[in-house]
Amino acid sequence: FILLVIIVGLVILGPQFWTKRVFAKHSAPRPDYPGTGAEVARHLLNRFDMQHIAVEPTETGDHYDPVSKAVRLTPAIFEGKSLTAITIAAHEVGHAIQDHQGYQPLAERTKLVRIAQGAEVLMMGIPIAAAVARTPAASVIVLMAGLATMGISTLVHLVTLPVEWDASFRRALPVLRQGQYLTPDDERGARSILTAAALTYVAASLASLLNLWRWIGFLRR
Predict the structure, then answer these.
(1) How far apart are the C-alpha atoms of 152 and 117, rounded to whole Å?
(2) CA distances in angstroms from 31 to 17, 28, 145, listed in the order given
(3) Does this model's pTM top 0.85?
(4) How far apart (Å, rounded) are the C-alpha atoms in residues 73 and 173?
(5) Hey, how many other C-beta atoms are within 10 angstroms of the C-beta on 119?
(6) pLDDT tens across 178-200, in order?
(7) How many Å apart are CA 95 and CA 99, to the nearest integer?
(8) Which of 40, 48, 73, 164 is the least crowded, having the fewest Cβ atoms under 10 Å away?
(9) Which of 169, 134, 150 is closest to 207 using CA atoms?
(10) Residues 85, 62: contact at Cβ < 8 Å?
(11) What is the pLDDT of residue 17?
């Protein structure tokens, strides 16, 4: 059992530590780069005729918002002139390209995220209703609602994997390569950054699956 816990911990937490290490390795300022992460994102968006998409700073993690049509970058990426900043900015532009070209998995993920958010809000109210009702049926409803919410969350994580992989290795990296934005050595570093980031999504999916499996096992007792 202890060995299993260690293995699970390494599989789930290992990618997070490795990602931080890879990002830090390539976060040194590069005066030879012509622009910051935000400026590169703006340049790439304009290049693909997506002037309507904004590039904004954020404190809540680098992401592309398909609803507001905005690429949002954390300060280190927004203002940074490093390989990590350029690569992550290009990755988020990759999501914008997906949206612009009607990439269906991104649209499905967006729908699932909305459903998951609605389910979480509903889940917050069900325990209160169950406490008022004080019936066995109400308790069962709470458990089933919780399981359904976790199931939707797990599905979101699983759908996210191919979406992130596509944005990294079919959009961002080819764009950087074809535009000769990076040297061959930098391209290898960019690939490492994107691979490390992808593994964090793999770890998140595994963690979500394990949590769902644990609750299903609990309910079957």
Answers:
(1) 10
(2) 27, 10, 53
(3) no
(4) 18
(5) 18
(6) 988 999 999 999 999 999 888 88
(7) 6
(8) 48
(9) 150
(10) no
(11) 83
